[in-house]
Amino acid sequence: MTMQQLSYVLTIEREGSLNKAAQALYLSQPSLSNALRDLEQELGITIFERTSRGVTPTADGLEFLTRARALYQQYDILRDEYAKGKVRRKFSVSTQHYSFAVEAFISTMKQFGSKDYDFAILETKTRNVIDDVANARAEIGILYLSDFNRRILTRQFEQADLTFTPLVDCKAYAYLYKDHPLAGKKSVSIEDLSPYPCLMFSQGGEGSEYYAEEILSDLHYPRVIHTADRATNLNLMRGLNAFTLCSGILSRQLNGSEYVAVPFREDEEHQNTVMTIGYLTRTGSSLSDVGSVYVEELKKYVTSPDDTPEPDSHDE
User: Fold this and answer.
1) Average pLDDT over the chain, rounded to whole?
2) What is the pTM of this model?
3) Could you give the CA distance from residue 276 to residue 222 in angstroms, rounded to a whole number?
């Protein structure tokens, strides 16, 4: 079965007769009849009943034509996308809720903005980031590893044939609204934070603690609010003096200058830990030209706050 044969039978269906279909296809009627007979023999069904008035699809033919029409439409789309001079770039990234990932995406789009493209950025749950890359719904996935989740997540990467590439190591910071009572401190402890609500992105499902996006998620917080997006977090920080634990890499461009990152101060019972932010790709696959640019843009935004004179000058 060929795409040409599918084109023939769909034209026959549309025209309602072999003679009219042959004219539309610039073929002789015997040639079209032979092509139809060959396809029916290959499939083992009769697609059309021939009558003096034309052709009518059989029950088997109707089912085949429905599937053939859907397949041929996809073929048309593919052919159009890859016609000379009409290639449309496609790129998608799946990420935990990081504004630096959005900033890098914006910078990448500006470099390809004059060309045809179909781009996507998905802020989602950690499990979805892994699944999106594994199932080719995203070329790149952005998440972090720590001592707490490394063993579990690394095993999942191996099972899904994924490679994790580190970008930067950070320690924990408390992310606060600028008028928060703790915003002016040089550092904050778990005791300092305990009177205030702790914000965590909802992960859901069994073992969700290992998918947590917040560093030090294994510590005990008396008050916890689960959310689903960064905008809600920012509003709760402002309205409830809530906080979240993050990398300290903040985004003035996207979140404004009203939010600050204060270093987390460890003690004997509550130790700080390293948060290794990086990106996932399918093992053995090469980055597209858009993906390569995106990774380079990511590197510009993920400077560790411990390496810069202004800890709050980048992204969450």
Assistant:
1) 86
2) 0.68
3) 26
